[in-house]
What we know:
By secondary structure, the protein is an alpha+beta fold. It contains three helices and seven strands; from the N terminus they run ββββαβββαα.
Amino acid sequence: MKTIKVVAAIICDDMQEKNKIFATARGYGDLKGGWEFPGGKIELGETPQQALVREIMEELNTKIKVGDLIDTIEYDYPTFHLSMDCFWAEVVSGQLELKEAEAAKWLTKEQLDSVAWLPADITLIEKIRTFMR
């Protein structure tokens, strides 16, 4: 089975407080409409952090600061294996403009279960919840 290596940004309103996190609804492909953390594939020669900064600029026209690694999610979809490094992040500049996603929301700790997360992303929710206020 093919492995796809990606990175995801868990963008929070404040890296210390973590009152809200930013989630997007996928705007294309087989998983269209499912909620996920923004990010994408790591290109040759990039560190995961560099890939995340580039992907968020491409997808959301926003510059982020990448924080600590939360976890690496390993998940088997029917046609590929996903390996996803998930990092805390916060906005440095920009307006989180949706270029690929069909919707987005800032979610509080209590609202984390209010969206239909994609299978790989949902495995991270409980861990994120423990860090949020």
